[in-house]
Design goal:
The complex is a heterodimer. By secondary structure, chain A is mainly alpha-helical. Chain A is built from 4 helices and 2 strands. In chain A, strands 1-2 form a two-stranded antiparallel sheet. By secondary structure, chain B is mainly alpha-helical. Chain B has one domain: EF-hand (Recoverin, domain 1, Orthogonal Bundle). A two-stranded antiparallel sheet of chain B has the order 1-2. Classes of the chains: A mainly alpha, B mainly alpha. The interface between A and B is large, with 37 and 35 residues. Chain A: GO terms for molecular function: calcium ion binding; calcium-dependent protein binding; chemokine receptor binding. Chain A: It holds the Pfam family S_100.
Chain lengths: ~100, ~110
């Protein structure tokens, strides 16, 4: 079946990675897609992780965001954003 | 998660993918891990489009090499997440650069 598929058709894993990247770009307004401010990160977690956020990890996630420094000035790069998604992921594994 | 958001779906897919490739033989007390062999298999099965770019493939190979150094031989969930992040990060950069060059040519 793999060969028959259109080679442009992405796998679920690839679409998932793209989605995570796109959300970062959508919310990184101030940093022009280079970084998120803690405020933008907070907004993203509330709006885009409403269920995962509730599973245990919301505490730590919010604490982490608070520790990031100035809510409007601190820069949260893609790697840090990815790590936070990892925390959310660990939260949904524990369920 | 009946009505999960797109981002939650994405996180769940990546979690399920780890579970799919991590060994089932482990007893439930031990955290699940992926062997390096299975990780390579996962890369070619699940990320074949993203890694067609030779640059990306080289980056992925380097990531696996770095992993060899810790001699543990198996990939934990944390390591898996970091590895996928290592693949996603350059892709995010490429998307940004492409958008910028589109803006410039307009």
């Amino acid at each position: 079946q793999g060969e028959v598929r259109d080679c442009q058709e992405l796998t679920d894993v690839e679409r998932a990675i793209e989605t995570v990247i796109n959300q970062f770009h959508c919310y990184a307004v101030k940093g022009q897609k280079e970084y998120l401010t803690p405020n933008e990160m907070q907004e993203l977690v509330v709006q885009k992780l409403p269920h995962l956020g509730k599973v245990r990890c919301v505490g730590p996630l919010e604490e982490k965001i608070e520790c990031m420094g100035d809510p409007d000035e601190a820069k949260l790069e893609f790697g840090e954003y990815w790590d936070m998604m990892g925390d959310a992921a660990k939260g949904c594994r524990r369920k | 998660m009946a009505e999960c958001t797109e981002l939650e779906w994405a996180v769940q897919v990546l979690v399920n993918n780890f579970d799919k490739y991590s060994s089932r033989r482990c007893c439930c007390k031990k955290p699940r891990r992926i062997s390096k062999k299975d990780f390579r298999k996962m890369l070619s099965c699940e990320l074949n489009h993203m890694l067609t770019d030779t640059g990306n493939r080289r980056a992925a190979d380097k990531l696996i090499c770095d992993l060899d150094e810790n001699k543990d031989g198996r990939i934990s969930f944390e390591e898996y997440w970091t590895l996928i992040g290592g693949i996603a990060s350059p892709i995010a950069q490429i998307i940004r650069q492409q958008e910028q060059s589109v803006k410039l040519t307009k």
